[in-house]
Design goal:
This protein has helices at residues 3-15, 19-28, 36-48, 52-64, 70-81, 86-97, 106-125, 128-144, 150-166, 176-190, 195-207, 211-222, 229-242, 249-265, 280-287, 296-305, 495-504; strands at residues 308-313, 319-327, 339-343, 363-366, 375-377, 381-385, 392-396, 427-430, 438-440, 446-450, 453-456, 468-470, 476-484, 489-494. It has 511 residues and is α+β, with helices and mostly antiparallel strands.
Length: 511
């Protein structure tokens, strides 16, 4: 695909949250067809939606094809930083910084990323040297007012405030509030020249304790047309990891505003149904009464996660899929109220034709969202259907971990469209690629039914097989089992047909 076609196609896929399409586009790119400016634009588009894995892969392709512009190498380092590959990113930035030392744009950007790397190392590992190295990287551009220096200054202020909170001596005799007031005065005099200045003004207002003004700047920041997922996520990280606003009264006002904005930037939508935020004043100050949402929605999401487990082999430890607990009687009355465990038969099966990597004798379920991440062995096989049919295996779990509340299937399938004709949204929670538990909350339109199957656009990856599929109220109604590549949709198996098959199966066990 030529650059003049590729860039708008990629931009549309990102803006529509079609992240599977984004993966395909970046995998198929011919880097030889692009110049430095086009490469920079592509990497910037990927960064805005926080597609850091694709960003690194694409940057590598450009660099290996001969595009060595500093901006491309810096963007690659950025992708590494945001995937927490801090040391690798830092080495790349150190290799670059002398080359761009006098560049009015790339110099401050590269030095700022070095500061960001050391700041993250301090958050991750502690250590006075990491803190001092971060300050050393941020200070020159702030003190000499070079390039876009305001964000360097607010990072100096934030790190000094964190050092004071941690009782860490820095040897730097600067006052946090004086830095913040200087930044605010500069923005008042010269104006906000870019989207980051709005976030910087918010942070500077916080630093001087003016929370009302901080909320005013927050409103302007999250509603700015250039604010996207990357900007909001970066600000949230700063609020939580450096300013430590979690579990503080001020954080109770500010963080929900940013968290909601991030969800919107990543494609999720929540219904404006009234105030259930612990302290709604901050949220209402930015979004107004009509923008308030039930935090019960988030609470329910977290509760559902407690019943979901990563499937692995107890001998090798290799992870292969997802499974979840369901109340037994919800599928078959004589199974009683004890929980049963549900996954795909192509993940776990006793039938060779299913080609499953796990069998009941060696498989175990790890409940990663419970304290201590307990693992539980699986018990008696109750029901199985081949991967070419219902693709489901159900087993007893004699000793489920404490706190793993079984899911309750919904008797109803969600309508294809919401009231007003908007596409219906569904949600999947699973262990993509055997990693940590993740919920798909973007690009998740319900597209149709072909009983016993349901089709949807929620992005999933290997390891999501066996994940529960929920409606917008977090009611379970299907089991995710595969992607239909040619149709660019995913497919789940409806719980209704599974329950009907279970009830009539002569081999189903009884209490």
């Amino acid at each position: 695909m030529k650059p003049e076609e590729f860039i708008p196609t990629l931009k549309a896929a990102l803006n529509e949250y079609r992240y599977t399409d984004v993966q395909h586009l970046t995998q198929q790119i011919d880097p030889r067809a692009f110049g430095d400016d086009q490469a920079r634009m592509i990497l910037s588009l990927l960064r805005r939606k926080r597609r850091f894995a694709e960003m690194k892969q694409t940057a590598d392709s450009f660099i290996h094809s001969g595009l060595q512009a500093p901006v491309i190498r810096r963007q690659r380092a950025q992708s590494l930083l945001d995937q927490n590959f801090i040391h690798e990113a830092l080495q790349d930035l150190k290799d670059l910084v002398n080359e761009v030392a006098d560049d009015p744009h790339e110099g401050p950007e590269t030095r700022g990323l070095i500061g960001r790397a050391y700041k993250q190392l301090y958050v991750n590992e502690g250590g006075s040297d990491n803190l001092k190295q971060a300050l050393v990287a941020y200070l020159p551009d702030w003190q000499e007012q070079r390039g876009d220096y305001r964000w360097h200054g607010i990072n100096v202020a934030a790190l000094l405030a964190r050092a004071d909170q941690d009782g860490m001596a820095t040897g730097i005799n600067l006052n946090v509030q004086e830095i913040a007031r200087t930044i605010l005065n500069d923005i008042e005099m010269k104006g906000a020249t870019g989207v980051w200045d709005y976030g910087t003004a918010m942070e500077a207002s916080m630093a001087i304790g003016d929370w009302d003004t901080a909320l005013e700047w927050t409103g302007k920041y999250v509603k700015h047309p250039d604010t996207d997922a990357f900007e909001i996520a970066s600000t949230l990280r700063q609020m939580k990891e450096v300013w430590c606003l979690d579990d503080t009264p001020e954080g109770g006002k500010l963080l929900p505003v940013l968290e909601y904005a991030l969800l919107q930037c990543e494609g999720a939508t929540l219904e404006p149904t009234g105030s259930q935020i612990l302290d709604p004043s901050g949220f209402q100050a930015v979004y107004g009464a009509e923008g308030l949402i039930h935090l019960q929605w988030f609470d329910t999401l977290q509760k559902r996660c407690l019943a979901i487990a990563r499937m692995s082999d107890s001998a090798s430890g290799a992870s292969y899929g997802t499974g979840f607990l369901v109340q037994g009687s919800s599928l078959r009355a004589d199974w009683g109220d004890a929980p049963v465990f549900v996954t795909n038969s192509h993940v776990l099966s006793v039938n060779p034709s299913d080609q499953a990597p796990l069998d009941p004798n060696t498989a175990e379920a790890e409940f990663t969202r419970l304290p201590g991440r307990p693992k539980a062995a699986l018990g008696e096989l109750l029901f199985t259907s081949p991967r070419t049919q219902l693709d489901v295996t159900i087993l007893r779990m004699e000793h489920p971990p404490e706190g793993a509340t079984p899911l309750q299937p919904s008797p109803y399938n969600p309508a294809l469209a919401q009231v007003g004709g908007k596409p219906q949204r569904i949600y999947i929670i699973g262990h993509p690629k055997g990693g940590e538990l993740a919920a798909s909350i973007y690009n998740n339109d319900l597209t149709g039914y072909d009983p016993p199957y349901v089709h949807y656009r929620s992005p999933t990856e290997g390891g999501s097989s066996g994940s529960p599929v929920f409606n917008r109220q977090w009611d379970l109604f299907a089991v995710h089992h595969r992607a239909l590549i040619t149709e660019q949709v995913n497919e789940g198996v409806l719980l209704g047909p599974i329950a009907e098959a279970v009830k009539t199966a002569p081999s189903a066990s009884k209490d």
